[in-house]
Design brief:
alpha/beta; 8-stranded parallel beta barrel; 15% strand; binds phosphoenolpyruvate; 8 strands; 251 residues; TIM Barrel
Length: 251
């Protein structure tokens, strides 16, 4: 049985005041014990969130990390070891906004994945196709390529301590959501890709769906056999909405 995971990606949102309000809202939530819940604030607010959520079963993660595991001369970056020191347990790697806007490539994503894992962080590898790629019928090929970039370099067993998030780029922050069937097709293909190399990893790895998940569509998505939870952007900035999504993952 895979334990569902719901992670909130706050992206570049928040001020100390709005983060304090969101913490208050999260503290009031009834989080189902069978669901692992995490939030990923901007780095500046990680400590505020960790302190604010002390005693609450909500983990804190980061949205990005440096290519190198340890601290050193790399202006503006944050090392995975520093994220661990701060209290983070997981980190997103390869989010599509970083791939498309900041030009992050598979090779860098793979190095971040390895650096994070070497420090004990759980990498959440984000993969997904653009609208053009979907319309050209290339969805499965694109996603398989993004996954292979890590599997080929680090081996399939690296995914025994990692999470995959399938996030169609056309669904992120657009209000468009992949239908449960569209998402399931890709999730099943991802699991089959693992299965070809390791039945154990394929059975255990959690594959999250991300892309305009809301309370209204979460239950249907999470009801699909290969969808093990969600990576939630916009809707995670509202504690009540986020709580409803977490509860949908527990049903
Ligand atoms: C995301 O940024 O990972 C995401 C899924 O965003 P949204 O839920 O806003 O589409």
């Amino acid at each position: 049985m895979r334990r569902p995971l719901v992670a909130g990606n706050w992206k570049m949102h928040g001020t100390r005041a709005s983060v304090a309000e969101l913490i208050e809202g999260l503290r009031r939530l009834e989080v189902p014990a069978e669901v692992e819940v995490a939030v990923m604030p901007p780095c500046l607010y990680i400590n505020q969130v960790l302190v604010g959520l002390e005693g609450k079963a909500i983990a804190v993660g980061a949205q990005n990390c440096a290519l190198e595991p340890m601290q050193g001369a790399l202006t503006g970056e944050i090392a995975p070891s520093q994220l661990v020191d701060a209290g983070c347990g997981m980190v997103l790697v390869g989010h599509s906004e970083r791939r498309t806007i900041l030009g992050e490539r598979d090779e860098q994503v793979c190095r971040k994945f390895a650096a994070a894992q070497s420090c004990g962080l759980v990498p959440v590898l984000c993969v997904g196709e653009t609208l053009e790629e979907r319309q050209a019928g290339r969805t499965l090929e694109v996603v398989a390529g993004q996954l292979d970039a890590v599997i080929d370099e680090l081996g399939v067993d690296a995914f025994a301590r990692a999470v995959v998030a399938y996030e169609p780029v056309w669904a992120i922050g657009t209000g468009l959501t992949a239908s449960p069937q569209q998402a399931q097709e890709v999730h099943a293909a991802i699991r089959a890709q693992f299965q070809a190399q390791s039945a154990e990893v394929a059975q255990a790895v959690r594959i999250l769906y991300g892309g305009s998940v809301k309370a209204a569509n979460a239950a249907e998505l999470f009801g699909m056999p290969d969808i093990d939870g969600g990576l939630i952007g916009g809707a995670s900035l509202n504690a009540d909405e986020f709580g409803a999504i977490c509860r949908a993952a527990g049903n």
